[in-house]
Design a protein that fits this description.
Elements: H1 2-29, H2 34-39, H3 51-59, H4 62-93, H5 99-111, H6 118-127, H7 134-159, H8 162-170, H9 175-186, H10 188-204, H11 207-212, H12 222-226, H13 236-267
Length: about 270
């Protein structure tokens, strides 16, 4: 019994080490001198070059790109939560002709890779005069995140007993009142899971921004990373510092919401 438990915990430690090693490598490399990093003479820095972060912040123009990503993420996630919660509730509780067709279309959209639709999306935005605008970019981000989010929210609402809604209707509550006051609070774990999943997606999106934006000042935080990728003058240590800066907000978000993510995915798994 002791041997099996020891082997189990040893395996967990090994998995944790494998998962954390890239993160630790990035953090240590971000405070090394360029010569020391390229030579590979030491995994740990002999001196901590905190100035790498200052250089990354200034040369990567993160004072512009970081607020852009924060703005896009907050607005897009709010939009996704509003639409996905209402659509998920409608698909879970309202019987209407063609509901199965709608479900099939949502699943079909999830299968199609997002980059495959970029040209069509750009043409639509041009016709709507929304190309190279924040509004157009956010609308597309919301549209990209809706299929999975709707399925997650639908799964949450399906699991809830209908007796709660029936009792609320008998008490005089309207359909929207039932959704807003009873069903939505019960789906908080699902809302939290959707919020974090889609925040990760929006924060890491870059290809779509390259297609839609011509103005560099509108670009998300990943644009700052590309400024340090050059075959002629590689700046790996600065790039690692820029990477640490760009992922810090989303790591903080995940640490605060990891319990809700696990609970939300476990309770609202798509069947």
């Amino acid at each position: 019994m002791f041997t099996r438990r020891f082997a189990f915990y040893a395996l967990l430690v090994l998995v944790a080490f494998v998962a954390l090693f890239p993160i630790v490598s990035v953090l240590l490399g971000s405070v090394q001198k360029a010569q020391e990093l390229y030579s590979g003479s030491s995994f740990f820095p002999t001196t901590f070059e905190w100035n790498n972060y200052v250089t990354a912040w200034n040369d990567g123009n993160f004072k512009t790109f970081l607020p852009n990503s924060l703005f896009y993420t907050v607005i897009a996630v709010i939009g996704i939560l509003i639409v996905a919660s209402m659509a998920g509730y409608a698909l879970a509780r309202i019987e209407f002709p063609g509901s199965k067709v709608v479900m099939f279309l949502i699943l079909a959209i999830m299968i199609i890779p997002a980059p495959a639709s970029f040209i069509a999306v750009y043409k639509v935005l041009v016709n709507m005069h929304l190309a190279n605008t924040r509004q157009g970019y956010i609308l597309v981000l919301i549209a990209e995140g809706l299929p999975l989010s709707i399925m997650i929210m639908r799964s949450f609402f399906v699991r809830q007993p209908k007796e709660l809604e029936e009792a609320a209707v008998l008490d005089g509550s309207s359909s929207f009142g039932v959704f807003w006051r009873i069903m939505l609070p019960l789906a908080r774990p699902g809302l939290a899971a959707v919020a974090v999943i889609e925040a990760l997606h929006v924060w890491n999106e870059y290809l779509l921004a390259l297609v839609i934006f011509n103005d560099d000042s509108l670009m998300p935080v990943q644009r700052g990373l590309t400024r340090f990728v050059s075959a002629e003058t590689p700046q790996t240590n600065i790039l690692l510092a820029a990477t640490a800066i760009s992922v810090l907000p989303i790591i903080v978000l995940y640490l605060f919401a990891q319990r809700n993510i696990t609970q939300g995915i476990a309770e609202g798994a798509v069947k």
